[in-house]
Amino acid sequence: MTEKTTMTTQYLSEININIYTPSKRLGLMHHRSNCNINAGTSMQDVDVYSNKSNAKEEEMYDDENDPKTQFARNLVTPGTTISKEGEYLKGHGTFHHQGSLIASVSGVVDKVDKLVSVRAFHSRYQGEIGDIIVGRITQVAAKRWKVDCNARQDYILMLTAINLPGGIQRRRTSSDELQMRNFFVENDLIYAEVQAINGDGSVALHTRNQRYGKLMNGVLVSVPPALIKRSKQHAHTLDCGVDIILGVNGYIWIADSAQQQAQTQLIQRHEKDSYDQPLFVPPQVKQVSRESRQKIARVRNAIHILHTHYMLIHTRSIMEIYNMTLNMPLTDMLTPNKARQIITAVHTNIQERMGFKDDNEENDTDMISQFNHDTEMND
C-alpha cells in the first residue's frame, strides 16, 4: 500500500497543470486528436509530445499576433465576403447580399464587438481629439460656425470655443453672438484643434490659443489625409522662408513667413484697440513679393509631386524636392517625365541616407546626373 501511494505521488508530481484560453484549447484539441497515447506510453514520451505541441502553439499564436499577418488577413476588396449574415452587424463599407456580409470598398476590416466596418484607403478624414486641422467656414449659425474639414460632415466651432480678442476670459454674451461675423465669415480658412467627439458623431473644434485662428494671404492644397502623419508639431517655417501648416485632415496651408509675421502683429494690435470692428488689412501688409510667390508656388508643386506619387508629405521631403528643382522652371516641375525623375532621385537619396545599396545604384546616379544636365540645358 505504501509503494502504490509513493508511485502515485511521484506520478502526480510530474504532471504540469496549465490553464488555457478558449482559443488555445481549440488548438490543443486539434493536436490531441492527431495523437493516440496508449496506456503503456512513458512519461518521457508524453513530455516530448507536450513540448512539441507547445512549440507549435507558440508558433501559431505568434503568427496571429504578427501585424503583417493581421493586416494581410484583414485586407479586403469590393465583393469580398466577410462573414455570414447574422454573425456581425453591418457597418460602414459593408452591405448584405444573399445571406452574406460583403465589403463594398477596398480597405482594412475593423471589428468592434459585433460591429464590422471596412476602413477605405482613400477615405474621408475621421477626427481624433488633439488633431491639428485646417478648415473652411461653411456656415454661420446660432452660437456656432460649421467648418469643412474634409470629413463626412461639417465640424462645429462653438462661440465659447474661440479666443476672444485681447485674450479676455469671460462668459459669452448676446453682444458677442451679434458680432460673430466680425470673427469668422463664410469661406474663411481657420487653423484649429479637435476638442471633443460627441456621442452623436459630431466633432467639436476650438481655437483657444494664440497660434490658432484665421488664415489669410496664402495657398490651400488638398491631399489625402493618409499622406499626413500625426506628429507633435504641424506648423513649420521652412528654410526657404515659407510657413506651412500640415493639417491632419489633408488640408495644407502655405504662406510667406515675413508677410504672416506682419499680419499677425496687425491682428494683435486690432484685438487690443477695436476688436468690435471688422479687421481691415492694408494693401502694403497684403502685398507679397514676386520672389516670395515663386517660393510658395515651388513648395506647392513639391507637395503636388509627392501627392501624385503617393509619398508621405513632411518638411524633409518637401525641402528635398524644393532644393533639387531650384534651377528648374516652375511649369516644368509638373510635367510627368520631370516628376518621375524627381521622385526617383528622392528615393535614391532616402536609400543613401538609410545606408541601403541597390543593384541599380549606378543607373540611378547616371539618371540624376542626366536630370541635372537637362535642367541646366533648359535654363
Automatic annotation (TrEMBL):
One of its GO terms (cellular component) is cytoplasmic exosome (RNase complex). One of its GO terms (biological process) is U4 snRNA 3'-end processing. Pfam families: ECR1_N (PF14382), KH_6 (PF15985), S1_RRP4 (PF21266). One of its GO terms (molecular function) is exonuclease activity. It is found in: Nucleus. Keywords: Exonuclease, Exosome, Hydrolase, Nuclease, Nucleus, RNA-binding, rRNA processing. This is Exosome complex exonuclease RRP4.
